[in-house]
Every structure is written in C-alpha cells, then in structure tokens.
Amino acid sequence: MLKGSDRLSQTAMYSGFVNSPPTTLSSSIDSSQTIINIVDGTKLPDAPNLAIIGVDSNAETVLYTGKNGNQLTGCIRGFQNSASAWNSGVSIMRAFTAYDHDTFKANIEDIVAEISDQDWGLITGSATSTDDYGSIAS
Does 3 fall in a domain? Predict the structure, then answer.
C-alpha cells in the first residue's frame, strides 16, 4: 500500500489505435466548432481521446470528449496549438502527440518518485541468513 495519498495524481492518458488509420473530415469546420463530422468514426478510438487534423507543422490537436458514430463532440480545439479552419476531405487521425509523450513521461516520473519514497520493509545493513529452503532464518 502506498503511504501518503493512496492514489497517485496521474494525468489522463488516452488510448491509441494500431497504425493510426486516418479518416477525413466530411464537412468543413471553422476554428470554433466543437462538433466535428468525419467520414469513418471507426478509425478513431472512443472518447475521450485526441485527434490530429491535418499534417506537418500546420496540424491541429483536438481533444474530443464524446463520439457518436461519425461525429466527434465536445471538442476542445487547439488542444496543443492553435485552432484552425479546415476544409472537407482533410485528414484526421489518432496519432502519437507531444501530449502523449509528456504525459507518459510525467506519470512514470511520478510513480518512480512515489516508489522511492516508500519503506518497503527491506532488511538493509545487517547480515541475513537463510534456511535450507531459501527463507530468511530468524
């Protein structure tokens, strides 16, 4: 059992999809729309999750909080960058993002810090002997 808080304060991590299959926007969107219509909703993981619209340095990361068929809802636009207007037919996919990397790294560092603060009851600084079965002898 972990001492202090029994639960670590971990940042939310979102599931990925093998090979990050792309789909496309089925209609144009402006930079403030919170509902995004896509051609094939099966290409993106269930909500909540992240999606990348576009490619290269112009791409936009979106956090969607709901998914209903081919519609992403409750979208937080420009999750890691600026929200943009996009034309119908532009690629959208679940790709590995800087958020994924940074969150993965921070959560591991948090776990390592918590573990290193624990008293695991290990015997240190004394000679220990074992019996014939490998158990610590008293």
Answer: no
Please check whether residue 56 lies inside any domain of the structure.
yes
Global pTM value: 0.75
pLDDT in tens, 24-44: 999 999 999 999 999 999 999
Long-range contacts of 79-86 (CB under 8 A, 24+ apart): 79/50, 82/31, 83/31, 83/32, 84/31, 84/53, 84/54, 84/58, 84/60, 85/28, 85/29, 85/30, 85/31, 86/25, 86/28, 86/29, 86/53, 86/54, 86/60
pLDDT level of residue 53 (50, 70, 90 thresholds): very high
Number of structural domains the chain divides into: 1
Domain that holds residue 54: 23-107
